[in-house]
Design goal:
This protein is mainly α and 186 residues long. The chain has seven helices and no strands.
């Protein structure tokens, strides 16, 4: 399937809007937690990869995670106190998930690829935002906890995203968009 169908675009748009509805309150909650309990805010990290996982698992098409994240970020823009950084953050969270499948030229859709992308996302996020969280002032145990909570959150969100996408697929959502020969594998 080389062409992009209207159904594909609309499915990504619906997933992106649904993600923005989820992320708007999460964005504000994580901002509040950042000031009072930075480590606890890491528990919300996985919410930002949830739309990418659902989109890729449901559609199994190149670019689904990035397009869904872009739409989600754009919809979130007026509801976030972070401005354009919301769009960048959403896309940044989707990129490693997308790359896990791009590396296989979108020929494999194995479950482990989602988890590899999720772990990579968490580590990249911690490296990218560590100084914002004041990681340089944390004890070694707090730094390990900081990374562990981010990875745990992203892995849990990936499991939830796979579950949601599989149930949507069984219900017939996006049946005309997903390639017939494509199957999620273990």
């Amino acid at each position: 399937m080389n062409r992009v169908s209207t159904a594909y675009l609309l499915t990504c748009a619906v997933l992106g809007v649904a993600a923005a509805i989820l992320l708007a309150p999460a964005n504000w909650l994580s901002t509040v937690l950042l000031g009072v309990a930075p480590l606890a805010s890491q528990l919300l990290t996985g919410l930002w990869i949830l739309p990418a996982v659902v989109a890729l698992r449901l559609l199994q098409r190149p670019g689904a995670a990035l397009l869904t994240a872009l739409i989600s970020g754009l919809v979130l823009l007026p509801f976030s106190g972070w401005g354009l950084a919301s769009v960048l953050t959403n896309v940044m969270f989707a990129l490693p998930i997308e790359l896990a499948f791009a590396a296989a030229l979108y020929r494999r859709w194995a479950t482990w690829q989602y988890y590899a992308g999720a772990a990579a996302t968490a580590i990249i996020y911690c490296l990218w935002q560590g100084s914002y969280f004041g990681i340089e002032t944390m004890t070694p145990l707090a730094v390990v906890t900081f990374y562990a909570l981010a990875v745990l959150s992203c892995v849990a969100a990936t499991a939830l995203g796979i579950l949601i996408a599989d149930r949507l697929h069984r219900a017939g959502v996006a049946a005309t968009v997903r390639p017939k020969a494509s199957r999620a594998t273990a």
